[in-house]
Amino acid sequence: MSIIVPVLRRLTDITALLLTLGGAALIVALILTLGIIKDLPSVPEPLRRIIETPATEIYAANGERILQIGGHDYVPLDQVAIDFLQAILATEDHRFWEHHGINKMRTLKALWTTIADGRLQGASTITQQLAKNLFFSFEQTYARKVKELLVSFQIESQFSKHEILEAYVNQIYFEPRAQGIASAARHFFGKRAAQLSLAESALLAGLPKSPTRYNPLRYPDRAKTRQQIVLARMVAAGFISPTEAEAAAAEPLTFGRQGGEALVGEYFVDWVLKDLEDRYGAQVVYHGGLKVTTTVDLQLQRLAESVLVQGLQTTEGLLQPPSATDGADEVQGALVSVQVNSGAVKAMVGGRDYAHSEFNRAVAGNRLPGSGFKPFLYYTAFERLGLTPASVLKDQPVSLAVDGASDWRPRNFRREYQGPLILKKAFAESVNSIAAQLVALTGPQPVIDTARRCGIESPLAPVYSVALGTSGVSPLEMAAAFGTLAAGGMHYSPFGVWRVEDWDGQVLEEHIVSGEQVLDPRLTYQVVDLLQGVL
């Protein structure tokens, strides 16, 4: 065994050397073939200037700036907690102090995957990630990757590891309002970067892999799992002991932002940024210097936020016991305002307090609409059956056979029945027995089709009870669908961005209002009249 092991090690070393030489030869060939050396950007001095990328700016519809993304609060390395520095090294580049800009084995592995699968792979060291700041096109090409490698070598040859690490921790993207470790420490924990504990450091070091997915304010369970992975890597790297890792994992974390007033329309801004990320990519959105003009009306937005909180407080006053509204179980809500003749979202509130919960209930919090779904049922009945608001049905107990299940027997809210009713009165009083008779006559699928035409995209179960709103939809969908009714059957898809310009003022996109007539205006008018009769 003592003879075999050294032989195997020598063979491994020789194999690694051959692979490295082969990879280096291939890189040289790429350089010569593509002729890219002359196009390399210059590395600024001092190195901290490398993170001075153009700021992306988000504006309200009236031109007032809501948010600037890309500013950095620069702090020297000696003012950053050593736990965070070790956590980020263990997670992002554990060979940082050893390599000269690239991790040879990881680069060769990525190169092999690229050749074998035809998919461009990355193997970024901290130096390579820093080098990306010099490229504003963000294209993913072989030439681009080679340029990054060459710039990484240049950075390593010009600057010390201390300078490189300092520039890197000041440019890490954690979330739109937290770029750089100083901003992140203040945003998530309300403290300076030097004050971060091991537990806090490990959590923050886990965010760069996927800032949205591991956001602790939005997905605390995911963030906790990621934190434990970082702690395990710190143990493997020899930075901390297993006992220290266990203690940090068990430490409760208290989140609390400091440094300025809360942003107006935070849920709306998150929604817009997610949409932009899907279309342009995170690199362009957060580092590309975009100028984004949104649809939000700040006056309406502030009013919406205030009204929602007041409404929730009123609701809490009606609930017993009061403890049911404390902490994580407190009553939540959402509000969306959509311009009827364009689809422009003028206000959006996804919860009572963004600082405590970033989950956007306005777009992702599907809830049962209940009787709010009945307008689509009544429109379908008018269209398919030729009924009118003056048509008469009998308010009486209803039992509908359901294949493979017990009969469906919906009941009225007051458990009372009034006999013959015109549909206008049945709608105004939200009589469930009448709604059940209508869906039995039309069938569930035509009702779903009407809702789809109006903009409802969430899954809707093709069962009788769908007419009573038993399938979850989002507030944004409902606002857009009711907007279709208010616009005489003209549907406008909801949107949050009017215009996007690049850092040089070139217009990348501009929203052109375009609606589609999806419902009969005459029948839609009758449904709107029913809705007005409820007030």
Quick take:
The chain is α+β, with helices and mostly antiparallel strands. It has 19 helices and 15 strands.
Helix content: 40-55%
Termini separation comes to 88 Å
What spatial order of strands do you see in the largest sheet? 2-1-5-13-14
Task: Please report the first level of CATH classification, the CATH class of the largest domain.
Answer: Mainly Alpha
User: Mean pLDDT, rounded to whole units?
Assistant: 85
Strand content: 5-15%
Number of domains: 4
* Corresponding CATH architecture of the largest domain: Orthogonal Bundle
Report on the structure:
The protein has a five-stranded mixed beta sheet with strand order 2-1-5-13-14. Strands 3-4 form a two-stranded antiparallel ribbon. 45% of the residues lie in helices and 10% in strands. It has four domains: 1-34; 56-70 and 266-365 and 474-480 and 490-519, DD-peptidase/beta-lactamase superfamily (Beta-lactamase, 3-Layer(aba) Sandwich), CATH 3.40.710.10; 72-260, Biosynthetic peptidoglycan transglycosylase-like (Penicillin binding protein transpeptidase fold, Orthogonal Bundle), CATH 1.10.3810.10; 370-473, DD-peptidase/beta-lactamase superfamily (Beta-lactamase). It is an alpha+beta fold. The model is unreliable at 1-9 and 110-115 (pLDDT under 50).
